[in-house]
Design goal:
Length: 266
């Protein structure tokens, strides 16, 4: 599973969706109608009706916030037939709002991926090392090298990916599928900043969270230049598809319950 956690940039300038890939988490400073930081989790494979323009994206995000947090905004719309009868808003498919900022999002993603929970008994299958965090930095290690190293420790590919598929010609994709002794990486979390980058305090907080959950963190780079966050996301998917996995379309065809339930309004 691949998650993207992006600091800042949401609603103020629109947002990017993840296409048909696994979920990503974005942060909003929530300075408009919400007195506390809020975040929105977008599961790209389940998003529907999202046109590729900033106005539509902003409208969908606004609807998600208003539906999930009625105490800080209008969570209902009035029927044309009965003006006084409120109709609860339905959040857009594939979007979930949670209270808290990027740090809280990261905590939840790490726990969902089986990272060690501080002060709790860890599930036997949730061993340290099963989750890896990649921090995007211009001075980090080349992403090709890092993904090549991670490749040898990834969970074996599913049987529905043919041996002559896009990964077959990649020498880094040749792993021992029968080796169960090596700790397998089951989740990769990528932290993406904006044009300013993470502050020293933000990076310190990020490393502290990873340390509490016994999760390794690597500084990786797409190159020496500064890129738009949306461009970084596109390039990240290219490298992940090339070196680690290919995501079949039917992965999102099943009507499974969301992994993270929408919090009830209180």
């Amino acid at each position: 599973m691949l998650h993207l956690v992006q600091f800042r940039q949401l609603l103020k300038k629109g947002s990017e969706t993840q296409g048909g890939k696994p979920g990503k988490v974005l942060k909003d400073e929530a300075r408009h109608n919400f007195p506390v930081p809020c975040s929105i989790a977008i599961c790209g494979g389940r998003v529907r009706g999202l046109a590729p323009d900033e106005r539509t994206v902003a409208a969908q995000l606004s609807l998600a916030f208003r539906a999930a947090l009625p105490e800080h905004g209008s969570a209902s719309q009035h029927s044309s037939q009965e003006a006084n009868a409120p109709v609860p808003l339905t959040p857009p498919p594939g979007m979930r709002v949670m209270k808290g900022g990027a740090e809280e999002c990261l905590e939840e993603v790490l726990l969902a991926g089986g990272a060690a929970a501080p002060g709790r008994e860890t599930h036997p299958e949730s061993k340290s090392g099963s989750t890896v965090v990649l921090l995007m930095q211009e001075d980090g290690s080349p992403i090709e090298e890092v993904l090549g190293e991670l490749r040898a420790h990834m969970v074996p590919l599913r049987e529905d990916i043919p041996d002559d598929g896009p990964l077959s010609g990649n020498p880094l994709s040749q792993i021992d599928r029968g080796n169960t002794e090596v700790q397998k990486v089951r989740q990769i979390v990528v932290v993406v900043g904006d044009h300013i980058g993470l502050s020293t305090d933000e990076e310190t907080s990020l490393r502290a969270i990873c340390s509490r959950h016994e999760v390794a963190i690597h500084r990786v780079s797409l190159g020496p230049g500064c890129l738009l966050g949306s461009h970084c996301i596109v390039l990240l998917h290219h490298y992940f598809d090339k070196y680690l996995h290919c995501c079949p379309e039917r992965l999102w065809s099943s009507k499974r319950a969301p992994r993270f339930p929408v919090p009830s309004a209180q």
